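Notebook entry, structure prediction.
Reason for the run: the old model in the group folder had no record of what sequence produced it. Starting over properly, with the input documented here first.
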Amino acid sequence: MSKPIEAFIFDLDGVITDTAEYHFLAWKELAKDIGITFTKEDNEELKGISRMESLEKILKLGGKENDFSKEEKEQLAAKKNEHYLTLIQNITPDDILPGIKPLIEEIKKHGLKLGLASVSKNAIAVMESLGLKDKFDVIVDAAKIQHGKPDPEIFLTAAKLLNVETAACIGLEDAAAGVDSIKGAKMFAVGVGSEETLRKADIVYSKTELLSYGNIIREFEGA
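New structure, fully documented this time:
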């Protein structure tokens, strides 16, 4: 029997809103600038990992992993972020994925805590644009951690700041690295996406509109 539920901790990209397309377009623009062809298929490999790790993967893809100094790589990552910030200026509450608002309302109605665990350095700006920042008790982004997903640090940090035990938390993720992070933190994992990709999750929903507070709680209590 699990501990009574105290908190839900959400990933941002692909769970609350789909900024994946904006990240893809920003990386594609950067890759083009340095002579690398970057496709949507390539972009799948970047899900849930940090900006610098993503850059390393793209450079390796183009056989340019040894072409840039550490400082130059940091400049490239900053340039990608500039592209991304320009693109996300158009985000509004209409960009919240289906089913997320009702789920958040149910969580708040039951007096549970809400945390965000996103490796995006722009998480706070995106949450403000979505009109959701004030609904969350804690927002943990890349600035607050040393290790990105799949390391459990981001979910452990969110639980610590929420002042709850990890066994009393439910984490929501759309990436395999994120699910690994949740499970590494000894939390109950809800996956959004493909069952094959998210097979380590305790329960998987193919899309956000199918998320059910009652069903998630039943699964959690039965775990």
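Summary: The first helix runs from residue 20 to 33.
The old model has been moved to the deprecated folder.
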